[in-house]
Design a protein that fits this description.
Layout: H1 2-15, H2 41-68, E1 73-74, H3 84-91, H4 99-121, H5 127-150, H6 173-189, H7 210-223, H8 227-239, E2 264-268, H9 288-292, E3 299-301, H10 303-306, E4 318-319, H11 321-331, H12 336-341, E5 342-344, H13 345-350, E6 353-355, E7 361-362, E8 367-369, E9 393-397, H14 398-412, H15 415-428, H16 439-449, H17 456-463, H18 466-469, E10 476-480, E11 485-490, H19 507-512
Antiparallel strand pairs: 1-4, 2-9, 3-6, 5-8, 7-10, 10-11
Helix pairs in contact: 1-2, 2-3, 2-4, 2-5, 4-5, 5-6, 6-7, 7-8, 7-14, 8-14, 14-15, 14-16
Length: 523
């Protein structure tokens, strides 16, 4: 038992690292060559902790790329041009050298490299080492899921490469999906991934469980149109009763107080550790919540909100009016889930927050994120600029599993199960249950329940809705003055086109690798 907690503590120390050093792939300490390492349980756990740390570094670009490409939010910031790379993604003016597109691609392969080190070098001859290999296969599959759905036919790197193999050509999409399924099935069938003892078993849920791997496999099946397979394995996750919808205040679900809740499927771990999360440890700093929070230097912060909201954030993520309107269409202006997710400028002003006289908020239509508002209690050092926030990064939660399963059953011809699953979501949202369910119902519920949570763009593309929904995105960019929205900027070219179904292979990769073929429509 003592060894268990020592190993868990080692993992948690690495999870706390929040700096976005995407291409930093160090050796695991001063340990000699690779062939001499990876021999013991402790060494396997050190390598796994390094993999989890790399996963942490992936998150920043993973989150912003997928959300900026969706119709949920504007890029915002201090003014027009404050972050051109996010604006380009948000407005569909980006090219093959966009930094976010480039760094996300590279960081996924950094994660795959760490996974391959464990898979190839660790002999699964003890329970600890066997679990490490299973988790590495999960993360390799997780990385390839986003690579294939965002970038398409990228190279399949299934081993540590020799120097002469670095310039690999494209794999086919079919080969990549087969590889994802293989890794996830092997991880599940290894019988080394634990299951939580109950829905409230937060400790086991800090790492990958059997049900998390099953959920990722079900999602992979769904994206391929394998609806029967998706429904069968997602049902297993639901029937396990190891996860459930959070029943507390919905607007607190995504905060530090509810890290690793009963609904958490996959979260990048953070800690409230003033010794490690401080200026003495700049390696643990993260810009994520600085970028994500409201543009507080343009706001008068008073009233009841001033006592609980952490200021000092930069406003690079502002909800769109179309998202607010979608909530109102389903729930009405006083909807419980709406008011737990977004707030209007009028609601904010009642709480004591308003735009300063003579100022405006760029990339803003007068709507504010509420479900992920940055609270003082989320900051490791309340009252200071939030470089150190101990809210876990949310990657997947149980609500998504229910909605994936509902879609699989709608598409596969079992509407009764789909209705049960979607009504669980609606019941938590305090909505009247549906009497029947269609794919359109699933789409609407999924947009509202998981808005601003990194799923919308890939759904729009696979549903064939992106060219319609995102056609005008970027044509005009707003600014909010506190009393009105003005559309102050425009683009001559904008919006989702056929080529945007896949992101471009980054220009740097194409220049260095003559064996790579660029995605259609990109130069």
């Amino acid at each position: 038992m003592k060894t268990k907690y020592i190993l868990l503590s080692a993992l948690m120390l690495i999870f706390a690292v929040g700096c976005e050093k995407y291409l930093d792939i160090p050796k695991h300490g001063n340990m000699g060559g690779q062939d001499e390492f990876y021999q013991t349980d402790e060494q396997a756990m050190q390598a796994l902790a390094s993999l989890y740390g790399t996963w942490d570094g992936v998150y920043y670009n993973w989150f912003f790329a997928k959300n900026m490409l969706s119709d949920d939010a504007f890029a915002g910031g201090g003014n027009r041009g404050d972050n051109s790379n996010l604006e380009q993604l948000n407005e569909y003016t980006f090219g093959t050298d966009n930094t976010v597109v480039k760094d996300l691609y590279a960081s996924m392969y950094a994660l795959i490299y760490k996974a391959n080190l464990i898979i190839e070098k660790v002999a699964p001859d003890t329970p600890v080492k066997a679990r490490a290999v299973a988790e590495a296969k999960f993360f390799r599959a997780w990385a390839y899921f986003d690579l294939v759905t965002l970038y398409g036919p990228v190279p399949k790197v299934d081993r540590l490469l020799d120097p002469g193999e670095y310039r690999m050509g494209n794999s086919t999409v079919e080969q990549l999906w087969e590889f994802i399924e293989q890794d996830l099935n092997q991880a599940i069938e290894s019988n080394t991934l634990p299951s939580k003892s109950s829905a409230n078993d937060a400790e086991t849920g800090m790492r990958v469980t059997k049900e998390v791997a099953q959920s990722m496999l079900g999602k992979s099946y769904l994206f391929q149109g394998k609806y029967a397979d998706a429904a069968a394995i997602l049902d297993q996750v639901i029937d396990s009763k190891k996860y459930e919808l959070f029943k507390g205040d919905y607007d607190m679900l995504l905060h530090a107080a509810n890290n690793n809740s009963c609904e958490a499927m996959l979260e990048i771990q953070k800690r409230k550790d003033p010794e490690q999360m401080s200026w003495a440890h700049p390696e643990n700093m993260s810009m994520f919540y600085l970028m994500f929070g409201w543009r507080s230097d343009r706001l008068d912060m008073g009233g009841s909100l001033a006592a609980v909201i952490e200021p000092g954030t930069w406003g690079f993520f502002n909800p769109r009016k179309s998202l607010y309107d979608a909530f109102v269409a389903m729930e009405g202006a006083n909807g419980y889930r709406l008011n737990s997710t977004l707030r209007t400028a009028q609601q904010m002003e009642k709480g004591g927050v308003k735009v300063q006289a003579g100022q405006y908020l760029a990339g803003h239509e007068g709507y504010f994120i509420w479900k992920t508002r940055l609270l003082k209690e989320d900051n490791v050092s309340p009252g200071t600029q939030p470089w150190f926030v101990w809210t876990n990064y949310r990657v997947m939660r149980y609500a998504e599993v229910l909605l994936l399963a509902a879609e699989a059953h709608v598409q596969g011809g079992d509407p009764a199960k789909a209705l049960n699953y979607i009504n669980q979501i609606r019941d938590r949202a305090r909505l009247t249950p549906l009497g029947s369910v269609t794919l359109d119902d699933v789409k609407k519920e999924k947009r509202l329940e998981l808005c601003l949570e990194s799923v919308r763009f890939q759904d729009l593309v696979r549903w064939g809705d992106a060219e319609t929904v995102l056609a005008d995105q970027g044509s005009q960019v707003p600014a909010f003055t506190g009393s009105e929205t003005k559309y102050m900027w425009s683009n001559p070219t904008y919006g989702f086109k056929a080529k945007h179904k896949l992101l471009p292979i980054p220009r740097k990769e194409m220049e260095l690798n003559p064996n790579m073929k660029q995605n259609e429509g990109w130069e």
